[in-house]
Amino acid sequence: xxxxxxxxxxxxxxxxxxxxxxxxxxxxxxxxxxxxxxxxxxxxxxxxxxxxxxxxxxxxxxxxxxxxxxxxxxxxxxxxxxxxxxxxxxxxxxxxxxxxxxxxxxxxxxxxxxxxxxxxxxxxxxxxxxxxxxxxxxxxxxxxxxxxxxxxxxxxxxxxxxxxxxxxxxxxxxxxxxxxxxxxxxxxxxxxxxxxxxxxxxxxxxxxxxxxxxxxxxxxxxxxxxxxxxxxxxxxxxxxxxxxxxxxxxxxxxxxxxxxxxxxxxxxxxxxxxxxxxxxxxxxxxxxxxxxxxxxxxxxxxxxxxxxxx
Length: 310
Ligand code: CDT
Fold this sequence. Notes:
By secondary structure, the protein is an alpha/beta fold. 26% of the residues lie in helices and 26% in strands.
């Protein structure tokens, strides 16, 4: 039986601070329909796809801050996405800011299958930035203030004919993200991102922002023999410029589809979930070639380990 699934990455242009959930969901619905019209059975939306990227600001008004979080999923505003998913028979990944009933805050993504049912939830583990605002910066990056690290690990789900995993933005820079899912046989990793230029105040790194995006996604795909779908929120959002170049990466590490704008844009690829098999059976046959006993010498010790002075 063929396990080819046409998959879409639905890149999103800027979301204004004043944009309502209804307006944002309308944009997502339009892209879901476009993806479906091109044969897609799965569409990957971005990180925090329902609001502007609010961690760029220090927000002290609690009610204003709360307005960026979802307290239920689906909500009245997001229900049309679930209904359309079911009607069209297309699954989706959706990132959003989550506020739990017991007042915990996470940067979250859900996976919804082709019947419009939530089958998985992931909470971002690697939170970049700071908890306190930095002086003299036009924009902050306060994810450590507004979110707790995810507490669900990196699970995978057997759904939509494959073994599916999720990650969010900064997670893509960490090999552990993919490897933990790779060890569970993941066949497709979905990931949304908001990556502002200049966030580190380091010019040389800034010019490499887009290169590092692809480097991370392609290395994660190849080294774990998995498809990786990376979906940007991009363009000039409230004066903050964010990188695009959303991609669909094959288990070979090759980019098979790439966005060319910094606006709402749907790209698609026919993803053969069996394609990773040749790598999983050869160069990345984990059972045959990995040496966990060597890795634990280091990893069982917590924290950063500096080499000793010669
Ligand atoms: N959203 C997110 O995780 N963005 C980070 C950039 C900011 S690091 C201060 C990223 O890794 O793309």
